[in-house]
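During the no-cost extension, the postdoctoral fellow (Dr. R.K.) reprocessed legacy sequence entries with the updated structure-token encoder. One reprocessed record is reproduced below for audit purposes.
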Amino acid sequence: MKSRFYLVAIIFLMMVYVVGVRAQALEPIGGPYTLDSNTVVLLHFDSSMVNEAAVVGKTAAQAVKHTTSPSKIYYINNTGVAGMGKCVRLDNGSINDSTYLTVADTAALDMTGSWTIEAWANIFTFGDNSADYRWVPRVCMKPADETFYDGANWWLEMWGDNRLFHGGYVAESGTYVTVTSPNNMFIPGEWVHLTFIRDADRAFIAVMVHDHNKVLKGFLTQGFTKGDNPRTTHQAMHMGWAGAVGITNPSVDSWLDGFIDELRISKVVRNFAGPPVISDKIVLANQPSTLSSYPVSVTAFPLNAGGSITSAVLKYRTDTVSAFSSITLSTGPNNTFTGSIPSQAFGKTVQYYYKVTDGNSLTSLYPSNAEATTAPTRLSFGIYQPNSKVLDLTFEEGPTGTPVDHSTNNCAIVTRVQKDYSTDVPMGGGNYSWQLKTHPGIDIDSNWVEAVSPFLAVEEFTLDCWVKADSADRHAVRIIINPSAETDWNNANFELSFRNGATLPVFTARYWNNDGTGANVLQDTLIAATAHVGHWRHIIIERNKTLGKFAMVIKNENDVLMYKQIVDGIKPPLMAGAPLRVGRSWFDGTQNYYVGPFRGRIDNVKVYNYPQAGITTSVDNPGQATTPWTFALEQNYPNPFNPSTRISYTLPSAMQTQLVVFDVLGRQVKVLVNDMQHAGEHFTQWDGTNASGAAVSSGVYFCRLTAGNNEKITKMMLMK
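Re-encoded structure tokens follow.
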């Protein structure tokens, strides 16, 4: 009896095992697919627009053709992919064709959980900028209700300028969750299978690109905030165009000229064989020379259900030519793999990348093209000396010499065609400043300055500089920027710029969080064009890593405080990966997002890898709006005085301010202040001279403060 029981038990366990294996069996990718209960849309395009999933998917019975000519949409044998039958041709070979397909809107088309969106595509022609109607051909998309992309439920597309594939959606929070294939993945006239996955349980999205033989060409993933689901829309699903007729801002640059075949949308993550998913990973900033090692970690899990990770390693080297050394990462909880890079000497630069392999012998890299034979991308960090100055540009090499970095970092300084110096200098500025101006016959400005060094990427920083703007009438003009990449004009380790405040441009300090959550921003309260243009300003921005604070100070031409603000800057900054630029950001003159250069003078640019100015450690903070400032003029100190005295006053808000000295007969002696000034505490000095600079006699004088409709007077005594 017992033996029969054991035999039955063994058979039962074997059946459970077999069922489990079958439940986890890998699905073939690329089709042709058969209908199941998880299918929302299934279009074979075999001489018809029938949506085979209409019954179980609760979507429209067929797709609808939209075209200026019936001959622009037709079916043709798919000779490029085996077993596919026919495919649909969308002829958008000229801007007048306007050929696309739609599937009518239903609730089932609004994807908010897990999904797999797939299609075969063969794109013939494309554009390389937004002026071309085929710049971003959309394979499929559920557009937004007002502006086609801003709030789109999901999309799968190709970008012509970088020849890459791209999938994404807009979350309820407004966050754009996107993932991009490596550049140059697209080749005109070649079939590719595109797969766009959203895994709601494991909180990642992925794009896979397979060639016509179903061999994987590219794979990239991106995490997202769990529970922040895609927005829903009232638009039809579009194929061949991003849409949409009747909305406020339809697309003008997304027409697809080519073939589409075997389009399937599923409300589950299909169990395809794919490389491991790399989610969280440590990307090291520059490291101090005092550390004994540099900890690293990566979180990775298999794409397919029931899979496994068989190895996770970190590859590193300390030059650009040696073979990479391997560090086997230790397995930890929650699919985390950890290790450390050995300590390196001051001045070394470490290149590294992660490599993870699963049970299907498929490998993922981060960065994804780290092992490419041409133009590979690797992570890197430098070993720096703590508490040091990493850039010091005095511009005293004028009038024709190349600027020199006078810090011990000895950055390489790159200039363009023009070298323009000015003898207009700020307080303590020496003999020359750097001048950024237009040049007759040169369309794109050519005299900005670049500082090249890996040690300019810093977790905490102080940027200290003098700026005299000739104009401030254009939004987003970068004065100094430490960008994340060579061609990045936006994301920065830190930045000083003119950016629109409530209306017009103001002095703005920013740094971007390294977790992709945007920028920390500090903005002046005065319009730069009226308050600062034509005047030297001493500007300091600072991040304190220990306190998690970010600050900006603006001082006038006499180095007297005008404005200070401190905010939380808890998240670490994005690391710089390109030269620091003085006078402009990166540009591409063919693009409509071209950002104009700074016009004016810049001097004494200093960067430190610690909070050198001490702004974030001070207790006073006159820049914060929560401070209850009231209009006040304090008694000068000392009083009586000889030879000078300090006059302090407070403004409740930003206003035009005048501080004037009169004698006992009411005659004006000297104007000490006549300027638009910030809210907060201010002070100035009177040295006992008149408007001509001549010393006045001993006696009683009056100081009158006028700001807006407010006025106060104090009496002062000069004794010699």
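Residues 41 and 712 are 75 Å apart (CA to CA). The chain has four domains: 39-266, 277-384, 389-617, 632-718. The remaining legacy entries will be reprocessed before the final report is submitted.
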